[in-house]
Design a protein that fits this description.
Elements (H helix, E strand, L loop, with lengths): L1 E6 L2 E4 L4 E9 L3 E10 L6 E6 L5 E3 L7 E6 L4 E6 L8 E10 L4 E5 L3 E6 L1
Parallel strand pairs: 2-11
Antiparallel strand pairs: 1-3, 3-8, 4-5, 4-9, 5-6, 7-8, 9-10, 9-11
């Protein structure tokens, strides 16, 4: 059984920083892309950033230059460093991993962590 556990969310003032972490554990054969998504109240879940095993990254236009995604393959962990936070970044942030558990490839999701940016 695979689990993704996020940490690092919280309340921060506009202009501040937060760092999210997501560790994958359980029956893992290999992990391909890992990423972060977010969902604000009344809105659809959207991609924030994604990183491949080789380190290639892609970001939503709204976070380019402010957020940085990274990963530690040895620890099966992905990070999201969020700087210059804005009130519009307020959302529940979800970790995602495209991984092979030894039987099949599938998408796995974390439980979500709340990020609230006050103005």
């Amino acid at each position: 059984q695979v689990q993704l556990v996020e940490s690092g969310g919280g309340l921060v003032q506009a202009g501040g920083s937060l760092r999210l972490s997501c560790a994958a554990s359980g029956s893992i054969f290999s992990i391909n892309a890992m990423g972060w998504y977010r969902q604000a109240p009344g809105k659809q879940r959207e991609l924030v950033a994604v990183i491949t095993t080789g380190g290639s990254t892609n970001y939503a236009d709204s976070v380019k230059g402010r957020f940085t995604i990274s990963r530690d393959n040895a620890k099966n962990t992905v990070y999201l460093q969020m700087n210059s936070l804005k009130p519009e970044d307020t959302a529940v942030y979800y970790c995602n991993a495209d991984l092979d558990d030894g039987w099949a490839k599938d998408d796995y999701w974390g439980q979500g962590t709340q990020v609230t940016v006050s103005s």
